[in-house]
Amino acid sequence: MGSRRNNLIVLALVVVLLGVAAYFIFIKEPVTQSTQLGLDLQGGVSAQLKGSQSGGGKVTRSEIVQAADLIRQRIDRLGVAEPDVRVQSENQIVVQIPGVKNPDEVIRIIGSTAQLGFYQVLASDPSLMEGPQVVPADEVEKTEQDMEENLKDDDAYEKGKTKILFEETPTPKGDGISVVGYIVPENPGLTGDSLKQNGANVEFDQTTGKRIVSLQLTSEGGRQMGELTQQMLADAATSGEPARLAIALDQDIQSAPTVEEPLGQNISISNNGLPEGLPEDEAKQLETVLNTGALPVNMKVISETTVGPTLGLSSLKSGLLASLVGFGLVLLLLLVIYRALGIVADLALLIYALLLWGLIVIIPITVTLPGIAGIVLSIGVAADANVVIFERIKEEIRRGKTPRSAIQAGYDKGYRAILDGNITTLITAFILFALSSGSVRGFAVLLAIGVVLSMFTAIVITRALLGILSDRGIHLSPALMGVSKASIATAEQARVR
Amino acid sequence: MFENVDFVGGWKLYFSLSGILLLAGVIAIALGGLNLGIDFQGGAQFTVANAERQLSDAQIRAALPDEIAGESVITTLGENGYEIRTPVISGQQEQSQIRDSLSRAFEGEVSVTTVSPAFGQQLRNQALQAVVAALLIIVAFISFRFEFAFALAAMAALVHDILMTIGFYAIVGREVSLVTVVAVLTVLGYSIYDTIIIFDRIRENAPTVGYNRRRFDEMINRSIRQVVRRSIYTSVFTLIPITALLIFGESTLSDFAFALLVGIVAGTYSSIFIASPVLSLYKAWRAGKLKAARST
Predict the structure, then answer these.
(1) Cα B245–A447–A344 angle (5° rounding)?
(2) If one looks up domain A4-38+308-496 in CATH, what number appears?
(3) Domain ranges of chain A
(4) In tens digits, what is the pLDDT along chain B, a chain of 296 residues?
(5) Phi, psi of B131, rounded to the nearest 5 degrees
(6) Which end of chain B has less Cβ packing within 10 Å, N or C?
């Protein structure tokens, strides 16, 4: 079991490690800030998005990385603290943002593809003549279905070459949503590619004073816009109907102004229905998504979690309470069963707990709700490593060995069982990590670290502590180690038999 | 401890005891007792924390849109928490409307989780893959460290534990979520650890040459007696913090703890009363076959 000197060196090393752990947990930063808490414990938004091609093609790795990059830029523009945007698998992105006040808006901004399109309106819903149709919010879908049926009968509609898009605007009085349907060509005349860098800005119209988003096109874009609008005006002259330019974002028409004369590099998205123009947050969103540019693929939110700060705090509290109570009871039981050995085990477990916490802070590992479960479970695993060895030691004592040689034998024989057992737990942790995502991974990481660290404490620390104890001339009687005289007698009988 | 228990010889009793419980579980599953959460079938879950107002079931449903109110599952969490699980909600806008409406009704903070059906399917597949992969790798590991007979016996114990955990879930009707799968995998790791400790002792006590059924069974019984105290202590040491989680933890933690509680009790039982008899029976069967082959 190594000499006394070796044991002292090991203990000195442990003290240094404890010092390092304590420094990182308590001194470097206040203890409330040193441990990173997951969104489920501190509140926030987490969304998982899946990329797909409009045509159904395969999403490439570079496209998804680029999309993640753009999403990060969008969130940065919102000025939200420390977003975490990660590419998860070949076509998925995970976005995590702690403590957001308006989760819905954030989700909308990160998830919209933001493909800008300028279309010539070929025909519009006939009801537009006598003012747009106003319906309550939950009837929008049905109204659009009806409109689509009507518009499909229009001469301008040609399957495959044209499509039907809708413009939805809340009315100024807030009593409903006005819905207008338009028939436009399948492909836009111009796309967001012709937008200048940072070309979208929230402004106020000089004549009406209403809020608009101005769009500045590149010179090539301006030329194309000129051609498009000229063509539209010519068509309008023959048909006698006003020329309308539909500006659509992700297949939703933002506005469809009437064009009076050919347009150039400067266009604007406006809403003349409302007294203030575009609502402020909507204008801001438009500016953000247009300036960061369109995502290379369509992103769909497949899973979303919003956790309020109150719920997070109550989860954290209950998790902490459960771990502390569990930990305390384990310490107590070890003492009751193993007496003197129990003191050693308790000391080792306390060291284990502090080192584990230190690792969590230093690496750093984000602690989530499943992560707490992993920690609690690893307390059991760590106690067990001691149990396996102590039971072996007791067994050797019953066979008549002296405490010292029993400790030696206990370690030599218990070691192999602990190693095999812990390797299987590690295998489970790795499988969990490889085949899962998000918070489950947090559990796997904590379980794996807990298992490795518990082997370290049981095999290195407990051993050194016991070595010193038995070296110091302290007489450890069998009773002190929790072995009763009766059980020694039974063991002897069994041997004789 | 257990000086007079014949761990191997009494296999008929032990197997039928497990069999009855497993049958009850299978019946509960067949009767639709398995309560799949939104993780696996898609949908939305609204969690209300710190509600200022206590609402009745009907009042909560009134705050939900008509088309989903009927299909929603409402559970209370503690004194002023509620969890409302709804089918898939079509749009972002509708979701925020429901949240606002619940928030107004309860005067409390509302947290939301949504999972699309496609993602739920993905999670389900991943979970199944993880469980199968874990089983295969563990069997390979034991075959490598011990021998195939031990791996087979360990596998029998593991399948027993998984079925037992799922069966109990179905019987009590707790919600099955991603966390449940994590718990099942943890149970696998735990149960195999328990089994390995016993097998390790059998390996240590096993004679190097010759096989004699009576001697081998006697040896298994002796090995189990040597380590059974440790098995029970370990279960107790692991069950203590888990029970604390079950009592003090909220929704997710308590579901997780419940699965672990059942799984670990089953795992301790199976490593003593299932794995070892299976090992003995398989060894005897093999020996019988070899003998038959030699005599012809």
Answers:
(1) 80
(2) 1.20.1640.10
(3) 4-38+308-496, 40-111, 116-288
(4) 677 788 888 889 999 999 999 999 999 999 888 888 888 888 888 988 878 888 888 888 888 888 788 788 888 877 778 888 888 887 777 788 888 888 888 888 888 888 888 888 888 888 888 888 888 888 888 888 888 889 999 999 999 999 999 999 899 988 888 888 888 888 888 888 888 888 988 988 887 777 788 888 889 999 999 888 888 888 888 888 889 888 887 777 888 889 999 999 999 999 999 999 999 999 889 888 888 877 76
(5) -65, -45
(6) C
Q: Cβ of B178 and A423 within 8 Å?
A: no
Cβ-based neighbour number of residue B246 at 10 Å: 18
Cross-chain residue pair A104–B92, CB shorter than 8 Å: yes
- Angstrom distance (rounded) from CA A22 to CA A19: 5
Out of A108, A301, A380, name the one closest to residue B241 (CB).
A380
CB contacts of A337 in chain B (<8 Å) are 233
For chains A and B, CB pairs below 8 A equal 207
Residues of B in contact with A387 (CB under 8 A): 230, 233-234, 237
Mutate which of A110, A440, A481 to disrupt the B interface (most B C-beta within 10 Å)?
A440
**CATH architecture type of domain A116-288:** 2-Layer Sandwich (3.30)
CATH architecture of A40-111: 2-Layer Sandwich (3.30)
Torsion angle of alpha carbons A359, A365, A369, A374, nearest 10°?
-50
User: For B185, which of A330, A420, A432 is closest by C-beta distance?
Assistant: A432
CB contact under 8 A, B237 and A330: yes
All structural domains of chain B: 11-36+119-291 (1.20.1640.10), 43-115 (3.30.70.3220)
The one-letter amino acid code at A180 reads V
